[in-house]
Specification:
mainly alpha; Four Helix Bundle (Hemerythrin (Met), subunit A); 11 helices; 236 residues; 2 domains
Length: 236
């Protein structure tokens, strides 16, 4: 329970701080889907909410122990660094790789004896994070161009960025379902096949210009990967 609450508070911190920091960019891009831009909530309230979420995140993270708490808070710090400025640099993928890769470490280090996470779990988390980053930029590509956000995916042609993202997500799913020792089974094969089919569907959606659909399908790939993590949980 503590792990879930810590991750939730961390996500709220990152998400709300992003909305606050990007409020001027969102106005410039006319992002009426953003509550601050739409006038549904004030920037001050969002900033205070992010601060409160961070205040909860710290003790909730350390509830799993000092090593686990330090790892989780460093992942949150990496995500905040992305919000503050790394999102507009060629190093934009680094916070994603670190933050997603650190999640399995947060889980295992919180166990009795603070065991180190297996390498396959760290690799899968990092692959999933960077892959999601590449595909996540697709729906907002036009707005990013207007506001000058030039992360690594935005510096590449849209189709190439999506192909790279999907390849990384597929690799994450394959690692999760095939790499854990002693877990070769029909279930793993089905997970791998589902991930590959979903990934192919993402590419197909991009090729026909259905960018929002591509993002929705990417969520499906990520969901398959997370499900693989759950199935392989005993090997973490």
């Amino acid at each position: 329970m503590w792990v879930a609450l810590a991750v939730l508070s961390g996500q709220l911190t990152v998400g709300w701080s992003n909305d606050y920091l990007d409020r001027d960019r969102d106005r410039q891009a006319k992002r009426m889907d953003k509550p601050i831009v739409a006038g549904e909530i004030s920037a001050g309230v969002v900033l205070r909410s992010a601060t409160i979420a961070l205040m909860f995140c710290v003790p909730l993270s350390f509830a799993s122990g000092v090593p686990a708490g330090a790892i989780h808070l460093s992942a949150v710090a990496a995500a905040l660094a992305y919000n503050v400025g790394l999102k507009s640099t060629v190093a934009s993928a680094v916070p994603y790789a670190y933050a997603f890769g650190a999640l399995p470490a947060f889980v295992t280090l919180g166990r009795t004896g603070s065991p180190a996470p297996p390498g396959w779990a760290l690799a899968a988390g990092a692959l999933m994070g960077v892959g999601a980053h590449f595909v996540n930029t697709l729906p907002d590509r036009a707005a990013d161009e207007v506001t000058g956000v030039r992360g690594l995916p935005q510096r590449l042609p849209a189709t190439l960025a999506v192909v790279i993202g999907v390849a990384l997500l597929s690799s994450a799913a394959l690692v999760v379902t095939l790499a854990p020792p002693g877990k070769s089974s029909a279930t793993n094969v089905w997970f791998s096949a589902a991930a590959l089919v979903s990934s192919a569907a993402v590419v197909g959606a991009v090729l026909v210009g259905r960018h929002r659909l591509a993002w929705s399908l990417t969520i499906a790939v990520a969901g398959i990967t997370v499900s693989g993590f759950i199935v392989s949980g005993s090997t973490l």
